[in-house]
Amino acid sequence: MNTLFANLPTTVFETMSRLAREHQAVNLGQGFPDDPGPLDVREKAAQAVVHGWNQYPPMMGLPELRHAVADHYRHWQGLDLDAEAEVMITSGATEALAGALLALIEPGDEVVLFQPLYDAYLPLVQRAGGVARLVRLAPPYWELTEEALSAAFTPKTRLVLFNNPHNPTGRVFSRGELELLAAFCRRSDAVLVSDEVWEHVIFDGHIHQSCLSLPGLRERSVKIGSAGKIFGMTGWKVGFVCAAPGLMKVLSKAHQFLTFTTPPALQHAVAYGLGKPRDWFLDTRAELQRSRDRLALGLSQAGFPVLPSSATYFLNVDLAPLALNIDDAAFCQQMVTQRGVAAIPVSAFYAQEAVRSVVRFCFAKTDATLDLALARLGDVR
Ligand code: PMP
Ligand code: GLN
Questions:
Q1: Helices 245-258 & 92-104, crossing angle to 10 degrees?
Q2: In the predicted model, is pLDDT for residue 1 greater than 80?
Q3: Is the shortest distance between the CB of 13 and ligand 2 below 6 Å?
């Protein structure tokens, strides 16, 4: 049996959601919204199921969705994508990530990763035979520095797996940091796999900058998106992969034997949704930003040191200044069992040299849910 997978612990999201159910806790752990998602998009999917969009669609995705993805990114990110040669639909960003790693690395190749890291990355890299080289980001600013990148890149670097906007920190990396990373990728002839699933969940007027727009990266990067995040329906596993034709040919070979296709009714509805008016996307952001501010204010009034969050469904608190003499995992355990509020310890996103003082809360919830969590938490001082 494969010992790597046999020895993996259950993901922190599943563990925390189970604890939340057992303790009837308000679940601000796993990232999913209270809101059921846009009704018109859900109706499109329902009608498509009823009207028979239920057989295998084309392997690369429904043409209408591939074109909708190219049009959407042209409008929102100024990208020029050939829908036929440069866009593929996958069953969620997770499939796209797994496929990219299977397709693009050989055993022994080095892969640069950034901690805290989304929990699926490291096991997928390792199972594909990659050797992880970890760049450690730390609170409160989580910046990318030239020094840290120099230590991680070597002549064996083949691939860089990056996430922007970043889960769990809520960071949007600056143009300067992105250009620095691009320079390292070019210098070491590495492919950049850029997980951009949070590209629309971005606040305070930030503008998402795709890897495909970075100098010299158009031909050597893979952009990954997710309809689950764009429409706030996380169970909808519909992912988008965009890459230059040469890379896409290889990526499509992994896709054909991982899932081959993605449910066509969902693809049809997502194609419709991507064309929704600009204001729908901006209003959705504004609504989430309001929820972020509500939770941030409540937590700071209760004495929690709140770190800035510019994107995603998440904000973090750093317990270090409170000198509570307890680490993030123990704090989350106590919160869920004694206070009835679930959150995620950020140390779970580190493979080594973990930061053990930061706790992640999901704010994509109704005001009533957030207020209930705040009332239960009380003052931390
Ligand atoms: N990457 C990141 C950074 C994520 O946060 C998530 C889900 N929260 C995913 C990938 C998975 O996306 P999907 O559900 O489309 O597989
Ligand atoms: N991406 C979600 C989060 O960060 C959870 C994904 C999952 O449950 N695997 O909370």
A1: 110
A2: no
A3: yes
Residue 9: which pLDDT band, with cuts at 50, 70 and 90? confident
Total domains in the fold of the chain:
2
Ordered DSSP codes for 257-325: HHTS---HHHHHHHHHHHTS-HHHHHHHHHHHHHHHHHHHHHHHHTT--BPP--BSSEEEEE-GGG--S
Average pLDDT of the residues in 241-257:
98
On whether both 112 and 230 belong to a single domain, the answer is yes
For residue 363, is pLDDT > 90? Answer: yes
Q: Tell me if 193 sits within 8 A of 160, measured CB to CB.
A: yes
Which is the closest atom of ligand 2 to the Cα of 17?
8
- 248 and 104, same structural domain? yes
133/211 same-domain check: yes
Using pLDDT thresholds of 50, 70 and 90, give the confidence band for residue 254: very high
Query: Within 13 A of 248's CA, how many CA atoms are on the CB side?
Result: 22
Residues 201 and 259 in one domain: yes
Structural domain including 79 reads 39-274
Domain boundary among 274, 299, 332: 274
Q: 306 with 298: CB under 8 angstroms?
A: no
Say if ligand 2 is within 6 A of residue 226 CB: no
Q: Which atom of ligand 2 is nearest to the CA of 94?
A: 9
Q: What is the structure's pLDDT at 94? A: 98
> CATH number, domain at 301?
3.90.1150.10
